[in-house]
């Protein structure tokens, strides 16, 4: 797993993740996400999961805990992922009221801002990714 942590001009933490999030990487993943939320003046972190090849249940638990941590600080956690990315399948198991998830069509994009929750409310992921 490779993780890059940056901050945009508005203070939102941007976390780019690549590789596998599994038992061997969950602790590092969680520590990085908590650091991102804590370092952001607005306690908002956007996590780009486009390059995540595998997202285990422990990774989902880290996302839920970080979402709760950000909420306690008055912030939030937002996940962004292309519809064709492998991680999108695992995100369907996030509970209602979990982190905001934005599923975008495949293609180039820049993720450096927190976006509003998608239709269907926080944690909503479509039943099937678009073709």
TrEMBL record:
Residues 2-80 form the STAS domain. It comes from the Bacteria. PROSITE patterns: STAS. Residues 95-131 are annotated as: Disordered. Coiled coil: none annotated. It holds the Pfam family STAS. GO terms for molecular function: anti-sigma factor antagonist activity. This is Anti-anti-sigma factor. It comes from Pseudonocardia ammonioxydans.
């Amino acid at each position: 797993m490779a993780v890059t942590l940056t901050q945009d001009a508005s203070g939102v933490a941007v976390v780019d993740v690549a590789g596998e999030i599994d038992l061997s990487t969950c602790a590092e993943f969680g520590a990085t996400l908590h650091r991102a939320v804590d370092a952001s003046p607005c306690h908002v972190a956007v996590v780009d999961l486009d390059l995540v090849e595998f997202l285990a249940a422990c990774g989902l638990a880290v996302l839920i805990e970080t979402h709760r941590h950000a909420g306690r600080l008055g912030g939030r956690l937002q996940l962004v992922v292309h519809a064709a990315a492998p991680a999108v399948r695992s995100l369907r198991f996030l509970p209602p009221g979990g982190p905001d998830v934005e599923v975008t069509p495949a293609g180039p994009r820049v993720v450096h801002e927190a976006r509003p929750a998608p239709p269907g409310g926080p944690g909503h992921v479509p039943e099937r990714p678009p073709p």
